[in-house]
Amino acid sequence: MGNILSDIQAKYRQGSICLKFIYINIGVFLFTYIVNLIFLLFNARPSLWGWFELPADIMLFLRQPWSIISYMFMHANLLHLAFNMLWLWAFGRLFLIFFSSRHFRGVYFFGGLCGGLLYILSYNVFPYFSNAVSSAMMVGASASILAITVAVAVREPEYQVNFMFIGRVKLMYVALIMVIADVMLITSQNAGGHIAHLGGALAGWWFAAALNKGYDVTAWINNLISWTMKQWSRLTESKKPKMEVHYGKHQDDYDYNARKKAQSDEIDRILDKLKQSGYDSLTAEEKKRLFDAGRK
């Protein structure tokens, strides 16, 4: 078991930013599944999901604002997770051909934020969703993944990808078909998910279009993440016991011991001279040193 965990950790550290996000999504899914399974076995009412799902109700969202981030790493079931991770792996690697790892991180969060906010806004603005707003909850990385997909399509619209049973299709058509499908399914049972997809698609287009003009709309996200990680690193380091090292004190001790040894050696030399040649052979300075040493 230890070797398996070590291998996973090694692959995580060595992997691309895309692979790291896949590992995080899988890890979050396994953790929430195991905890909820334990709750179920003990007939416990509380569910971990409720704390991290994104609610459509504004008042409930204000009580758990972190859900605008946490929801984009959670998935309803294994099939939901598998489909999203395969899509993220395919288009995430493609994204990294044309953009940086820092851009990947920023677009993932930017797409999730835009998708989540559009979902909340739509459920509270359109009367069609009025009966569902109090109970609607959302999870999934789809908005973030669609942002990554659309960003690549805007950057390289003529680039072709190969689909099984279909053949090679230009990226601009892949993105267009996905957006049209989400618009057509906006009133379906999974309306919240499709609305979030559209928010993610908008974020991806916004990012790529702005970057072509020299402006990175995700820079503030990356700066915030870097600052947070830096503060967390400082906090964890401050809690670790530190060995006190007083360089000045050590240097003083070294100098003191060196002086004491030199004085001791000088007295020994004077005493040897005294034994061999007598007191009169000593110089005035030597007599004084011997006298001072005798007083200590």
Verbal overview:
This protein has helices at 2-14, 17-41, 48-52, 58-63, 67-70, 78-98, 101-125, 142-155, 171-184, 191-212, 219-239, 247-277, 284-295; strands at residues 54-55, 137-138, 160-163, 167-170. It is mainly alpha-helical and 296 residues long. It has two domains: 2-239, Rhomboid-like (Rhomboid-like fold); 251-295, no CATH class. The protein is elongated, with a radius of gyration of 34 Å. The model has no long low-confidence stretch (mean pLDDT 86).
CA(first)-CA(last) distance: 68 Å
Q: Structural class given helices, strands, pairing?
A: mainly alpha
CATH class of the largest domain: Mainly Alpha
Q: Compute the gyration radius: what is it?
A: 34 Å
| CATH arch. level architecture of the largest domain | Up-down Bundle
Number of helices: 13
Shape summary: elongated
Q: What is the percent of helical residues?
A: over 70%
Give the biggest sheet: 2 strands, antiparallel
N-to-C order of helices and strands: HHHEHHHHEHEEHHHHH
Strand segment count? 4
CATH superfamily placement of the largest domain: Rhomboid-like
Strand arrangement, major sheet: 1-2
Oligomer: single chain
- Please state the average pLDDT score: 86
Residue windows where pLDDT falls under 50 for at least 5 positions:
none
